[in-house]
């Protein structure tokens, strides 16, 4: 018995019903028929889906996420597992954390009365009624099993999806490590090497809480896209892994284009915040990884629909899906090949800067982790962390997270780039194989079927500029030469064709890089075709660059009542007039290149400046300081920390750091960097990377930050 969602709320779609329900209650999951309607009675050969909403968003993620269990109704153990059943991982990216028709239980299902349990927080452990929920009772009838799907094909398909997601995950892991290395280079120049254990601890804290840490003015933005992609691919991997299998899709006449919806929700497309080589390359690589991720997501759907068409013996379905599969493979390959080009160029720049082969000794990093695991933080390290505002609870969380970290065998720029290149090389054979299979199926099916669907064509300019309208055009043909068509555009690739209508579109790009667009052609009978392509977008206005700041110490100490004077120097490649806006703990506090902050108490305070050129097409430059209470300075001492007793004391770059767990250079020797070896603010590229002849290669702190960012998102309990 199927209860139609339209019947329940007078014709409103299933999505509307879920959103209305989610506004009225917390977590919920209702059994559905996998086709837009609810269902509460099944046969053993049916597939069980679920629709509902979840409220918990894990740290570092943009979407709400949870596990769904199927348990006997009324069972006192809400997480009672059925033999052979694996809890399914759902991602609620719609309004209110809504999800729709997630495949929950594959046939054969067992007769009985069951209910759905949402395991929302903390993905395991005891049932928490304030977070978790029991809902969605349904019945599986005791009748003979009539298999409606091919389970063997389902499991094979799931493996493909999982392999794709894991491949993307590897790419983004390496990108994130690369950005952490470059970010930490600025820390090493400004702070000196101030202790491996404390460095890891602060990085963990900032990553978990999202707090601003004193880094180079644009490094946080450079890392943002890659951290986001890492989290997104991690979610994809969990979804495929927990689902175990996706069934062939019977809706094989529908076309699923690539969608950047998740990446867009997380801030894509990304623009570099500095007119310099490293952020340009890093941002371009992040954008290309996003396109690959979108391609693989649509490839999985196309494979499912292709399998469904084969089961139904539909030559038309196989023709349509084979065509789109080939186009998706081409898109993924093009983005991957372009990524290799960007990697090669970035590698050449790093080599010229003399930092490509520079790294740190992983044994020093492991030694710091082992020391904390065995005996906790030293008094000095704990003081360093508390000076940034960490509480007892924060320290406990940080220590627990550090215990989960692992140290990779090599920590250098070259190792990161080699791994990134190898990850794509691992995917290339699969893409080549898919392309061959798709062409064979397309060729065979084309000779056996009549095609009523239109064939759409997209004409794109070879290049475009940020903020400047570019003309896109679409056309379509059909077996009916008199057919007319309507065209709908998805210019932001959020999955919705709501960005324009008509055969032409004035497209205004928002960020540089390879940009994906799509158009949908519909004939008078409602038959559709969807095509997509990419446009190479360049900048028309470069962002401002912060070239110097004072104090040089990004985390100075101050006594209560003392004033700390700040100054920032900036330039604009285009000669635009610049404005300066200062904020204290997120609130507007002043304007101009100079700013004075009076320490009101002994809490740490974050002082940031935003430099704008007034042009909407270029990002602003941001620099963050943390003013810490002077009472911590005597405890921390002159061990290479950025600490001074007051704002007038010489900056930390001039302090020779004493050897400690993190006080090693690339060769593993004691780090005793002098001011002449370190970068001055004026010399810094502002991108978190070394420039030729300007300063020493990244310190051990680089490796520590890399480990933290990479490992933190990998440790949740498996289903």
What keywords describe this structure?
single chain; alpha+beta; five-stranded mixed beta sheet; 14 helices; 21% strand; disordered C terminus
Would you write up a description of this structure?
The protein is α+β, with helices and mostly antiparallel strands and 719 residues long. The protein has helices at residues 5-8, 14-24, 151-191, 196-209, 219-243, 261-265, 277-311, 315-352, 362-375, 379-387, 392-403, 413-446, 633-636, 700-712, and strands at residues 2-3, 28-32, 38-39, 41-42, 48-53, 64-72, 88-92, 98-105, 112-119, 133-140, 455-459, 463-465, 470-477, 485-490, 504-507, 513-523, 528-538, 545-550, 557-558, 563-571, 579-584, 587-591, 594-598, 605-612, 621-629. Helix 4 (196-209) packs across helix 11 (392-403). The protein is globular. The chain starts with a strand and ends in a 7-residue tail after the last helix. Residues 1-25, 147-151, 173-180, 182-194, 215-229, 239-246 and 639-719 have low confidence and may be disordered.
